[in-house]
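Box 3.1. Reading complex inputs
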Amino acid sequence: MTNPNIDLKPLSEFIVDEAPERYIYDMNSGKHEVAIATKGLQVRYGDKLALSEGDLSFERYKITSLIGASGSGKSTFLRSLNRMNDDVATVSGKIMYRGLDINSADIDVYEMRRHIGMVFQRPNPFAKSIYDNITFALTQRGRYTKEQLDEIVETSLKQAALWDQVKDELNKSALALSGGQAQRLVIARALALKPDILLLDEPSSALDPISSAQVEDTLLELKKDYTIIIVTHNMQQAARISDYTAFFHMGRAIEYDLTRKIFTRPKVALTNDYISGNFG
Amino acid sequence: MNAKLADKIATTVIYVIAGMVALVLFSMLGFILVQGLPHLSWHFLTSPALSFEAGGGIGIQLFNSFYLLVLAMVISFPIALGAAIYLNEYAKKSVWTNIIRTAIEILSSLPSVVVGLFGFLLFVVQFKFGFSILSGAIALSIFNLPLLTRSIETSLAQIPYLQREAGAALGLSRWETVLHVVLPAAVPSIVTGVVLSAGRVFGEAAALIFTAGQSAPALNFMDWNPFNISSPLSPMRPAETLAVHIWKINSEGIMPDLNLVSAGASAVLIIVVLIFNFSARKLGMKLFKKLTSS
């Protein structure tokens, strides 16, 4: 719960430009901008330690895949990043975003989630029209003219590669969309809030291969403007779309590197076992 | 005995049992309708009851039933909605919520005549509301609350958890999610539950005998000021409902055509309850269509 004694400013007012967490250095390629980073993150369900992850930094405008067997803690890690685990688990450690620890008690979680959006495994459009699905969260907090909303709807749907299919039926119920369309609508809905970071929890595992490929194309398109962190069970997917890959095992990130290195020359034997299908 | 034969026998037995249930229902409905329908007329539905002569109607009782129903719903719906939202959306598992749930269960299994006597002692006697619409409406609300709460809670529980996650991920607070995502999605099923419970409340007699009273004084249908005692809207007047009327004339009626009046009133009661039941689903579906697209 947020602390009532602390003034809850919108997150944007906390931005510290040259915070130490802002950059990582790579010996080969130099300075990279960090979108979000964790420091000593631990997640407990009751007294069971589900995740004990030291420090991971995610580069801005890149796609990072989190892979690993079921129960390896990758989803737990992802859901902790925008505090979707708050109700079910105890999350300790720091999550640094724009120089601010967003895991601290005085953060306005609702405001923070507008900066760090999330898309889930199963498409979950609201039982509203396509149009209202996209504008709803916006109009709850701000005032927009009809023209502004129309434009946001169009832009977000175009970004999610859904505009051409639904532009003539924006008032139709979103529940009538196919699985792949619904998932892209959900992505558009998240994009409408203009987040910085998009977290995706196995976004295409409930979809057929064609819809899945469409979602992948969408993500590749989106990385120009968004930092994307995606949990996936599909190794080919991780290899196809991500710049970085982190391999999780038993609640730890065992190896974290450029995707091509993970998939060609992993340093840890366990990683090699997993990506070559020996377990998981 | 082989599996195929056993399956056949089981299926037959189940069909017979289901058929028996349907038969009981249809024979009762058939009996009531065949007896009562011929007696129904505009005059019967609109004129006041007569105690000593033939030719009385059920107009006032019919009006009383609807008025009480509306008042009882106005009182019980907001409370039931709030309780259901708390139980389904906010309450964590604890001793406290267990007590609430148990209380609701016990309340829902209270015989309605007990609710009526409780209402009589507390509202009619202690609070000096007298035999009145108000006492009756509160007693009906007590009778209706637990079932309505349970039904709304079930409606809310049917909305997938994913919808709440979706709201949270978009930066909506829990209340915003409940109000704008969960409730609208649950409206059709809530409405169905409300209408079904309305059917039950409409036919309730025992809870009203000692609270709304057993007399239906003449009403002045030109006077809609609720503060006048002869106004149909006055909450302080005694108000015999249709169900109570049926009970009353069958136990102590002395009008010469009491069998006809009783049959006619029963038919009206059944028809109204049937209309509630059939419209409940239709209304729910219609609302769902309307709410999900703009």
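In summary: Chain A touches chain B at residues 82, 84, 110-114, 117-120, 122, 124-129, 131-132, 136-137, 140-141, 171-175, 186, 189-190, 193 (CB under 8 Å).
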